[in-house]
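ok trying this again, last paste got cut off
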Amino acid sequence: MWSKDLDARHLQYVVYFLGIVVLYFVKRHFMNERDGKPSENEKFTPEQLFWKLIEKSRNMAKGDYAIQSEKLEKLLEGETPEFIVEFNNVFRTMLGKSYTWKLWAAAYIINGGCSDDTFYDFRSWLIGQGEMVYETVVNDPDSLANIDIETNDWEGLQYCAPTAYKNITENDLPKSDDLRLKTEPSGERWNEDKEEELKSLLPNLYAKYNP
């Protein structure tokens, strides 16, 4: 019960404060729901959410990379613009992490040559294979010898976030200045004119593609 000597002005302040509290919790409620379904996003880090969506798109496509790009784009269109920006930031981070000379040598062996643009596409494809494959291959590119790669058309996945963002906002996807891609691969450079060097660097992969 309110005290009888509480004047009208104090009561007005109390009502105003309570209104702010109510609005805060209502806002939290709607921010955490989408289409009537509670959001699980707050339970995971951006990187975990990224890999969950990659895995979901891969499962939906049943391993078909071309279809996976289509599925991922549609999945992203069902998210908020902020989510898509964060997704793309993680994607760019993974591109940078995999920008190594040794992995480039692997793509060179598999494709019979590999330009900078092709290597960009290859790393996008690698991300699409899921977190476990990605981490294994980045740490040991020679492990690609254990994977049956059914296509060398690796272009596609890198366009999903920008396209989805454009489709739902009609604006270009902003990029974080803190996530500029590396201009030089990490690791020791190899000589493409020396076959023995490639053979020594990635023996299992080289043997698979040069029987």
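PB: full thing came through this time. The longest helix spans residues 8-31.
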